[in-house]
Design brief:
55% helix; 149 residues; mainly alpha; 0% strand; elongated; binds zinc ion
Length: 149
């Protein structure tokens, strides 16, 4: 007697940060982790950034005056993606926002070489503010849907 078993696999990707359905937009912009990160960065830069890819990409098309903003937004996106992949493939544990902010700081420090000389001080100042935010991140208010565009 043979028994046949049919297995149906439903492939739904779950966000490794918050367990909601994972999409590209979610990981980089809608996830509570991404929103908190963009809120911190927006506060430091004095510019609302990280609403969506169009919002971030608008500054990429601008001239050199947004160079520091573009380096930081690129570092945020790259760090979120690398951390998400390290959680997925290297099975490192998610330990909180300071983990992500620390990675962004490390990446920005290594990217100082691509920053124009006349903007290095501005970038360094932002890096220091991100470091400070990372050290007190547990004391920041939780991000809700009140983020304005
Ligand atoms: Zn999420």
């Amino acid at each position: 007697m043979r028994i046949y078993i049919t297995v149906t696999v439903i492939c739904v990707y779950i966000c490794l940060f918050c367990s909601e359905k994972e999409t590209i937009h979610h990981v980089f912009f809608d996830c509570v982790v991404a929103k908190q990160c963009w809120k911190i960065v927006s506060g430091i830069l004095g510019v609302q950034i990280g609403v969506d890819l169009v919002n971030v990409g608008t500054y990429w098309l601008s001239n050199k005056k947004n160079c520091v903003l573009n380096i930081i937004s690129s570092a945020v996106i790259w760090s979120v993606w690398k951390l998400r992949n390290d959680i997925c493939f290297q099975r490192i544990g998610w330990r909180g926002m300071e983990m992500l902010l620390g990675r962004i700081v490390g990446l920005l420090l290594s990217w100082m070489v691509i920053c124009p000389v006349d903007m290095k001080d501005s970038l360094k100042e932002c890096i220091d503010k991100i470091k400070t935010a990372a050290s007190r991140v547990l004391w920041l208010p939780f991000v809700s849907s009140q983020v304005t565009t």
